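Q: Structure tokens for this one, please.
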Amino acid sequence: MTDIAIDDVRERQARLEQIVADLLAEAKRRGASAAEAAASGDTGFDATVRLGQVETVEHTRDSGLGITVYFGQRKGSASTSDLSLAAVRDAVAAASAIATHTQEDQCAGLADRERMATEVPDLDLYHPWAISVEDAISLAVECEEAARGADARIVNSEGATVSTHSGTHVYGNSHGFVGGYPTSRHSLSCAVVGQDGDGMQRDYWWSSARAPADLDPAAAVGRRAGERTVARLGARQISTRQAPVLFRAEVAAGLLRTLVSAVTGSTLYRRASFLLDHLDKQIFPDFVRIHEQPLLPRGLGSAPFDGDGVATKAKDLVGAGILRSYVLDAYSACRLGMTTTGNAGGVRNLRIELGTLDRDGLIREMGTGLLITELMGHGINPVTGDYSRGAAGFWVEGGEIQFPVEEITIAGNLRQMFLGLRAVGNDFDYPGSTQTGSWLIDRMTIAGG
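A: Here is the predicted structure, written as tokens:
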């Protein structure tokens, strides 16, 4: 990073910190007993090509400010994209007016003062990319050409996109806490269409990172998109049956996110979770450990403090298969009679302990069953845990992939699925803030044609 880039981001952060400080002072002047505010600024662009031609180039420059004021246990919130002093004052006035019309809420207020982050460590999250639009277009063309050239059966493209964004986030509250940090995020993606006879399939691949040097090569991203597409050609249906199911790693990440949703405070205090009252109970086999690493350097989900200003820290959500922690912000913790876990805004860099088998090893371990590569629809009942999704993937027999399948539905119950987890692979090979290998579930219902 150049000295100029460092100076620019420091100046931007100092400006946002001053805006937040002015906002908090205005809230106090209006008689608020407490207040909190978040401000952000982001710049970047996306360049997309399709069939070798530039399709879109979109530049973005966004800013935003949110304010919440408390008058005792009454709460009001307002937001604006205008960061001028007049707009800040108007936002405070609007939030204050709203607070006068709200009912008292005994849990309305800031997180405890002693839980505020006392320092903001450098997590190496800011790596701006000084790439020109022309070079980004060239990179996207290279990616798409690699995808289209992966196989003669690739007949069309949905395009390739290069994206680069960087910005600064600042949060402050009337405890005296004001903190901020800059971030960057870059990505490269491609999706293509293949045809074999009358059948057509599409698939994609992508790479995402805080630093441009950590992105996969454009040609590698394109080739993988092409190979994934071709592998799906010739897909067929299968008859209804029960069988083991292997969720490929990037699909298994959705199961982890479903777990997090079920143990999030807002879901729990509304009593809308199939894991209600499951704290300190067995929900997975005893080999399973699921943990959060919010202070991971360059992590796509890393943050030194949460949306309440509470210091983040590493912790286990599941240890030895037992649910060890809920996912709570200050408000939901109060509603549950518990203490915040530093998760306002969600979990950050969720990890499940990887196993010893690679994907091929898991397929051999499964023997006969379904390898799932794509899920469709939203057939999850959060209260009962009943799970039903459209799916596509590959049928496996004798420990080897036999043929691709499509237009099927898988069904089960998440409690049983979690307890029926036989193995987690070591095949984590996709970008994202959630890290997992493939999951082998002992048995699910597969509905086909």
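A few notes: The chain has two domains: 3-230, 233-254+354-447. Residues 233-254+354-447 form one domain.
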